[in-house]
Amino acid sequence: MKYLTIFIFFILFFTGCSKYENDAVFTFKDEMVTVQEFKEKYYKWINDNGFSDSSSMRKKFLYSTISDEVLYEKGIREGIEYLAENTNRIENFKKKLILEYMKKNLMSEIYGIDENTLKNYYMENQEQFKRDKLYRISAIRVRKKSLAKKIIKMTKTGENSLGLLSARYSDDKNLAATNGDWGLFSADIMDPAWKDLVVKAKLGEVIGPVEDSEKYFVILEITGFAYKRYLDFKKAYPLMVEKLIKDSGEDKWNLYQQEVVKNYGAKVNLDKLNWE
User: Fold this and answer.
1) Cβ contacts of residue 148 below 8 Å, gap of 6+?
2) Smallest Cα–Cα separation from 264: which of 78, 82, 77, 90?
3) Among the four 2, 18, 178, 265, which has the fewest Cβ within 10 Å?
4) What pTM was computed for the model?
5) Cβ distance 138 to 204 under 8 Å?
6) % helix, strand, coil for the chain, step of 5
7) How many CB atoms lie within 10 A of CB 269?
8) First to last CA, the chain
9) Which of 249, 183, 247, 248 lies closest to 220, judged by CA?
10) Consecutive sets of 10 residues in the chain, 276 residues long: mean pLDDT of each?
């Protein structure tokens, strides 16, 4: 009898959970936001801002809610590690989508973006990529944290420059080939994992190791600055792709956003936005 009671309890429990999930506009970690909960927040938002209700406005609020309230606010409350973990996952997804998927021509098939489209956009919109200040960064990227800690100690002795250490130890082949010269970065294209550290650092200061969005442990040094310069094509690449996806239409932008939020653990049910 005892086991039968437990069995019935679990059936009811999981049935209840499944029913609740089916009523969710989105779920994230252990939190589920039901249609009713979402509607109340949504109508307050459009009324407070003087917006008109529409399908696109509901989607806009959905993605901003997931990005801002769940990722940012909860991240702040639960600790910076939580926030950084999810931010890095998003950035890592974007890099994979933009760099790896492009090689497989999925950008061309899904979004109508190919290499020539990007090159033409870059040439025709160069002023978009002009920055007041850029940072020339030298870096070492390794997969093992223990090795990164060993390298950072070696930089403190002054016997080896970061560039020579990068040529010897970097698992990033591009950095190893350039003696650690990573090129010019503006703040808006830096990895969130180390952006704040670099912006606050002094010229010649060695920073790290920090785990970046591609699961490398990175050690960085600002070796110089440039002013009133343009980002090169490779550095501007992800900015262009995201801009072109956004301009390719609401459906394709929604698809991109769905993939982004899915990457950090959120499940979205757009059908639940049609609550009439």
Assistant:
1) 140, 142, 208, 209, 217, 218, 219
2) 90
3) 2
4) 0.58
5) no
6) 60, 20, 20
7) 15
8) 45
9) 183
10) 35 36 72 86 87 85 71 54 58 57 55 82 93 96 94 85 93 92 91 87 92 87 95 86 82 71 69 83
